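User: My advisor, Dr. K., asked me to get a structural model of this assembly before our group meeting. I'm new to this, so sorry if the format is off. These are the inputs:
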Amino acid sequence: MTDGITSDQILGPLAAAFPDVEFRQVNDPPQDVALVAHGQYRDFVAAAREAGFDFFVDLCGVDYLRRQPRFEVVLNLLSHVHVRRLRIRVGVPGSEPTIASITGIFPGADFYEREAYDLFGIGFDGHPDLTRIVLPDDWEGHPLRKDYSVGSVPVRFKGSPRAQ
Amino acid sequence: MSDTPNVVTGDFETPTVEPPEEQAGSSPTGATRREMRSIWVAGTEETAWMRNSTDEGAQEMLEASVDPAIQAERGIPVEDDFLETEATDNDELQILNMGPQHPSTHGVLRLHLELDGETIVRVKPIIGYLHTGMEKTGETLTFLQGGTNVTRMDYLSPLHMELAYSLAVESLLGIEIPERAQAIRVLMTELNRVSSHLIWVATQGADIGAVSMLIYGWREREYVLQFFEKVTGLRMNHNFIRPGGVAADLPDGWEDDVENLLDVVPKGVSEYEELLNENPIFRDRTIGVGVITPDECKALGVTGANARASGIEWDLRKAFPYSGIDKYEFDVPLGKHGDVFDRYLVRMEEIRQSLRIVRQVLETIPAGDYRTTDRKVTPPPRKRIDESMEALIHHFKLFTSGFKVPAGETYQAVESPRGELGIYLVSDGRERPWRLHARTPSFAHVQALPTMMTGSLVADTIATIASIDPVLGDVDR
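Assistant: The format is fine. Below is the predicted structure of the whole assembly, which you can bring to the meeting.
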C-alpha cells in the first residue's frame, strides 16, 4: 500500500515528511492506518493535525503481551474537511511503558490518556495530571493488561461451615 | 516503575490558585480554622475520625499548604476568630462537592466546584463510580455473547451500542448484511434516538424546574419502549442487533404500531415546544448558559447534538453512512450559539428528522432475510436442524464455542443520540476479542464540562450538566 500513498492528496505530504512511517489500508471500506515509531509520535500527531486531521476522536491502549513492543497506543483522528479518518498506532515497550503526551496538541486527549494510564499503566510524558480516572487511587495493578486475571469473588452460602 | 519521572501523580492544579509563598508573606491571611469543616455535637470532644472524614482525600483540589484549615491541623499558628482576619484574594474561594449522589448528575457523576461567591472558578469532574470493567468483560465473552455486554454501556441507547459492535465484528468478518436487516436496524436505532431525546428533554426540564416536563417526556417515550418490548422482548438492553443481522424479524402488525408512534410522538413534541419555547423561565435559564464554541468542541472531542448546537455541520449518518442510512432523506439541524437552549432546539428537531426516517423505512422496507445466511455466523432455522446434520453441527458449534473472527483491527462508529459512538476491536483470530474498546461520547462530553462551566454561575451548573446528556454507564463503562 505504500506505493499508493504518495499519490494520495492528503496523506501523501505526510508520508513524504515522515518516510519511516508505514501507511496501511485495512478492511473494506478501507481505513487508513499509520504505524509510527515511538520517538516520532508527537511530531507526527502535530503534523497530522496540520494536514487537516484536527478532530480528536479516541485514544486507547492495547496489550499484545507476547509481542515486541508489548503495548500499543491507538489514536483515532478525524478530518471534517476531508471527511476522512486516520488511525495512528504506536508501539510502547513493556519494559518502560512511557510515551509522549499529546494533550498539548489535543486537549481532549486528557481523559483518554488518564484512562490508558489507569487501565494499562502506560505513562504519558508531559501530561498535566496523570492520575487514575475510573479506578480508586489506591487500586493495585492495571486491569486491562493481559497478565491481570479477571478473578472472582468467592460465594458464601448461609449455613455452610466455611461461612465466616 | 517508581523511579520513572514520567509518571506524574501530582494534584490537579491550575494557575488560578494563589501561590503559597504569598500566603506566608502576609502572615495571618485567611489561615483560619474553619469550624464548620467537621460536624460534631457541641459540648463533646471532636475526635480524629470526625476530622478525617471531612478532610479532602486523594482527589483534593486545594494544596494542603494553601488550605488554612489543614494548616491549622498541622499546628501552624492561626488566629481563632476568622472574622478579624484581613480579606485576601483567596479567602472567598470555596470548594463545593457535588455528587456523586446528587439527583441532577444523571447518575453518579461527581464534581468539585471551586466557587468565588456565586461564580464558578474551576471545575473538576470525577468519574469512575460506575466503572465495572466492561472492556475487560468483553475480552472474556465470545463475539456472539459480546452484544449482551456492550448493550449495557449506554443504557439509554442500547441499540446504537449493539449496532456499532455488530458493524465492527462484521467489518472483520467481511460479510454482507441483507437489505431487510439493514432497514430493521435503521428503524430500531432511529426510534431509539427518539426515545433517548425524549428522556433528555424530560430530565432537562425537570432539572431546571419544569417538573411537568418529566411526566410528558416519559409519556411519549413509553410508546416507543412498548414497541421495543414487542419487537425485542425487552424494554432496554435488548441484544437485538447482532453480528450478522438482527435477532428476529419484526412481529406481525408492527406497521400499525409504528403508524401510531408517528402520530403520537410529533404531537407530544409540539406540546413540549408550546410549553418550553416561549416560556420566560426556561429561556432565562438556558439561553447563553453553558456555551461552548466550535473550536473548543473540536479540541475536546465533543460530537453529536452538542457539537451541532455549536454550529459544527457534522453527522456520521451523512459523512460515513452505515446500514444503508444514506438511502433515506433527512436534514441535519444546526444551532448557532452552542448554549443549552440551542441544544434543546437541535434535539427537538432531531426527533422529527428521525421520525421522518422511520416513515421512509415503513414505506420502503424490502422483503427478505433478517440476518445473513452465512451459517458460520448465524444459526440455521429451527426447522433445518431436524432435517440436516450439517445444520445441527452449525447450531451446536455456534452456541458452544462461537464463531472465529479473522485476525485484524477495526474501528466502526455510529451516530448515537449523544454523539460519535465508536468500537475499536482487535481480533487475534479466535472466538473472543483480543481487545474491545468503546469510544463513548459521554466520556468526552464530561471532559468538556469545565470549559462550559468556568465563569458561569453555580445555579447554571445543573442546566449545563443536563444539557450535554451524560449517561454515566457510557462514561465509566
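One thing worth pointing out at the meeting: Strands of chain A lie at 22-26, 31-36, 55-63, 71-79, 84-92, 98-100, 123-125.

User: Perfect, thanks a lot.
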